[in-house]
Amino acid sequence: MDRVRVLAGLDRGILEAYSRRTTRALRAALPLRLALPHLETLLARNVEKEVRKDALALRCAGEAFAAGARAGPDAVTRLLERGREIDAEFLARASRFPVGIVVRYEEILPLRRQRIERLLDAAGRILEAWRGRGLRAALRTSYPQPALEALIAGILRLYAMETRALSRAVRLPALLRPAQDAIGQRLFAIMDAEGARLAREAARVPFR
Prior knowledge:
- It is built from seven helices and no strands.
- The chain has helices at 3-27, 36-66, 73-94, 105-129, 135-142, 145-169, 180-204.
- Helix 4 (105-129) packs across helix 5 (135-142).
- The longest helix has 31 residues, at 36-66.
- The protein starts with a helix and ends with a helix.
């Protein structure tokens, strides 16, 4: 079994569920409906690239584990650089859609670094605990349920903070530009609430 691939699949499932729930909540938020076509494009494209970045981080943790080590600061730097390459591909595709984005790295990179560090640490712990047992048992060994919930919620919150920064860089129609900061704040509030709910639900699964 490729355990890193299993972890990457779990991560993908959580991020895609997070994006679906966020989009559903946005559709129900009347003040955001005018901005929704632009935000939906952002969320749909963004989740694809973040799944790719997380998979790279998890593969890096797996390679370090196979070598009897933990991924360190040099690995984080390499992953940040690779992330910028994935961003460039994302922006090239986004140029074909009715949304323009300028990535504000001065705001995004500290958030991204924290998320990578948490993913690397969590993957290392889980892989260590996974010896001779299933994934659920490894998760239970690695984290008590409250700690697992806090881990997932924290990673999703960093994702939401980065998405808020991206939303402020989206070129909205002139009518919506005066409300851009308010739209970003509302988007973050919705994502943060949905992330907390999803983390609670996901953390319960290994303990059933």
